[in-house]
Design brief:
Layout lengths: L14 H12 L24 H10 L2 H9 L7 H11 L16 H15 L1 H4 L5 H10 L13 H13 L6 H12 L2 E3 L2 E2 L22 H14 L24 H8 L10 H15 L50 H4 L13 E4 L4 E4 L6 E4 L11 H5 L3 E3 L22 E4 L14 E7 L2 E11 L2 E8 L8 E10 L3 E6 L3 E2 L18 E4 L3 E6 L2 E7 L6 E6 L11 E10 L2 E12 L6 H10 L6 H4 L4
Antiparallel strand pairs: 1-2, 3-4, 4-5, 5-6, 7-12, 8-9, 9-10, 10-11, 11-19, 12-18, 13-18, 14-15, 15-16, 16-19, 17-18
Length: 616
């Protein structure tokens, strides 16, 4: 039994296909729309903000797509009810009034898609209101004196003013200019922006710029950013799962949607056909993820299945509909180059297979059959749920998504995949890398290397080197760790995870037998092979460890609800030098990988000479 996926069966090739996809996601919302059309309630889970604001979110976020749909000349039967909702929600005398926006109020966030809608589909939304209702909307959008976080929230006030200005109504031009100027201070270079001031190191999928209202400066930044950002997508359409807000799902390709919407021609080899392919292939991948939707066809909190563990404290049942901003190209006419061109594949022969990206502190590679990154800089600037998993792991993949902690008093619930975990004893919490004390990218022997120092526990100091795959051993990356501790600790280092379900009977993996699915752990290595691929980790350092496979806590992984992780387990008295060889090969549809994976697994990478010179 599977949930209903509204995108299933849609080829997602033409503009009309895309419009049909849009309405298929809008239609399931109508039964949950309030009588006055101003709120959408899709579930009972709570957030850090009030319930009315959560239901306003459910109303507002689908507008990203509806506005583009209407601007592109399409229609939708539920439009009138959403227009009525805007009038009722901003009317202090109506029973469905949203309530005035206070300082740092979630209601201000939702003014962003509303402002976009007024700007793009004013002939439906603004013209559909009477004079009194328009005055109410303008008063509601007047948040000039409201306190806002010093982050991307400032965009929300910009869009509120933009919606009014596009309809010739009075708006706060000076406030809009000040906000835009301040947002400009978040810019770090090469198209990348922090989600806040200079001392923030957090860069999510929101971190590139492609805004049509600030003219050529933003377009130039988008052109530069695109040359980096293209590396975060695999040929099959999916993006690397990294950072927060991944419940927004195909909002990951919102940048490419904005590039098209803003009519930004990108530098070679990023043609219109490439941009179109990046967007549509991602949608096609989501069309094959039934768990991303409820049985009613609405989006779930989670990544590819319902999952509260990976959610953020600001995720309501309506939050995932931020994904709808990726429908922005529907506003373009059918003869625009984006729609008129033929879709093209990722230009893998024209862009490097491995690249270091300075601003987010990443090394990104397509070697090994999946696109993944090594990371040693990112952290969230506030105590976000599962922040150490969303930003602090060593590696993030398009094929092997990361896991989040479901608890910390057991190793299996602490999400040890793609990281090094440490604890003081059997009854103590396991800790992983949450932030880096120092970080850098260096080129050593023509290879980019990430170096970081970090302190997971008081008295435990670790220096880590992350080395991407070499072309002759494309399925392996190398990690090295120099540990100094003031008291004895236990350590556990994990590879990526794979499905812990066998083909045929869906039971958990058993001991590996040649040519079969299974799991294996020995004195110095561990690996697991299943329907989702093969992963493993091998001990190659002077301080020895033991291999083991471990069932991860259910629902800890973003992609799969039952997973297994190969680990290396060790004990450190005072000092240790670890080298880990980490293997990964994702499953492929032709199933040839099942008979060939062991060959690439047995061809392990050599230890760089410069590491040996450091005592490894």
């Amino acid at each position: 039994m599977k949930p209903f996926n509204p995108l299933s069966g849609n080829p997602l090739v033409t503009r009309d296909d895309f419009a049909k996809a849009c309405t298929s996601l809008l239609d399931p919302l109508l039964p949950s729309l309030s009588p006055g059309g101003s709120a959408v309630k899709l579930g009972e889970t709570g957030t850090r903000y009030d319930e009315i604001a959560a239901q306003v979110e459910g109303y507002a976020r689908p507008l990203w797509a509806l506005a583009a749909l209407l601007a592109g000349g399409y229609s939708w039967d539920g439009t009138k009810r959403f227009v009525e909702g805007l009038g009722n929600g901003t009317d202090p005398e109506h029973e469905e009034y949203w309530g005035v926006a206070l300082d740092t109020d979630q209601r201000m966030v939702e003014m962003c898609p509303m402002g976009f809608t007024l700007a793009m589909a004013g002939d439906h939304f603004w013209d559909g209101l009477n004079d009194r209702q328009r005055a109410n909307v303008a008063k509601y959008f007047d948040i000039t004196d409201k306190e806002m976080p010093n982050t991307n929230w400032l965009w929300f006030r910009v869009f509120a003013n933009l919606g009014l200005s596009k309809n010739g109504y009075k708006y706060d031009h000076d406030r809009m200019e000040k906000d835009m100027n301040h947002l400009d201070t978040f810019y770090r270079g090469e198209g990348w922006s922090n989600d806040g001031p200079e001392d923030y190191t957090q860069m999510d999928y929101y971190s590139g710029e492609a805004d049509p209202t600030r003219a050529e400066k933003f377009k130039d930044r988008a052109r530069t950013f695109a040359l980096d950002f293209v590396h975060y997508f695999h040929e099959d359409g999916r993006a690397i799962a990294f950072g927060r807000s991944l419940t927004y799902k195909f909002a990951m390709v919102g940048f490419w949607a904005a590039v098209a919407f803003a009519d930004v021609e990108l530098p070679a080899p990023l043609t219109w056909g490439v941009v179109k392919g990046l967007l549509l292939r991602n949608f096609r991948w989501w069309s094959k993820q039934p768990g991303a939707f409820t049985p009613n066809g609405t989006l779930t909190i989670g990544y590819t299945y319902p999952n509260q563990f990976m959610s953020d404290n600001y995720n309501s049942p309506g939050s995932p509909y931020w994904a709808m901003l990726s429908f922005a190209p529907l506003a373009l006419p059918s003869d625009h180059p984006f729609w008129a061109c033929k879709e093209e594949a990722l230009p893998t022969t024209s862009i490097p297979q491995t690249i270091s990206v300075r601003h987010p502190g990443h090394i990104v590679t397509r070697l090994g059959g999946h696109t993944f990154l090594l990371s040693s800089k990112q952290r969230c600037h506030y105590p976000l749920r599962a922040a150490e998993a969303k930003y602090g792991k060593f590696a993030y993949s398009s094929a092997f998504a990361y896991s989040v902690s479901t608890g910390s008093y057991s190793l299996w619930s602490s999400a040890p995949d793609s990281t090094l975990s440490v604890t003081y004893g059997d009854d103590a919490e396991w800790r992983t890398r949450k932030k880096c004390d120092t970080d850098s990218i260096a080129i050593i022997d023509n290879t980019p290397v990430l170096t970081s120092t970090w302190t997971p526990l008081e008295g435990v100091n670790i220096e880590t080197w992350l080395i991407p795959p070499a072309e002759d051993t494309p399925n392996w990356h190398v990690r090295a760790h120099h540990i100094k501790t003031s008291r004895p600790i236990k350590t556990a280092e994990g590879s990526f995870t794979v499905s812990n379900e066998r083909l045929g009977d869906n039971r958990e993996l058993v001991a590996y037998e040649e040519g079969q699915e299974g799991r294996y752990g020995s004195e110095s290595e561990a690996f697991a092979v299943s329907r989702s691929g093969a992963v493993g980790i091998v001990d190659a350092g002077p301080t020895r460890r033991t291999g083991e496979t471990m069932n991860m806590d259910s629902n800890s992984n973003l992609l799969l609800n039952r997973t297994v992780c190969p680990l290396l387990l060790g004990d450190v008295e005072n000092e240790a030098r670890y080298i880990s060889l980490v293997y990964a090969l994702p499953a492929a549809e032709n199933n040839e990988w099942k008979s060939t994976w062991k060959e690439s697994y047995n061809k392990q990478p050599s230890i760089p000479q410069w590491l040996k010179e450091k005592g490894f």
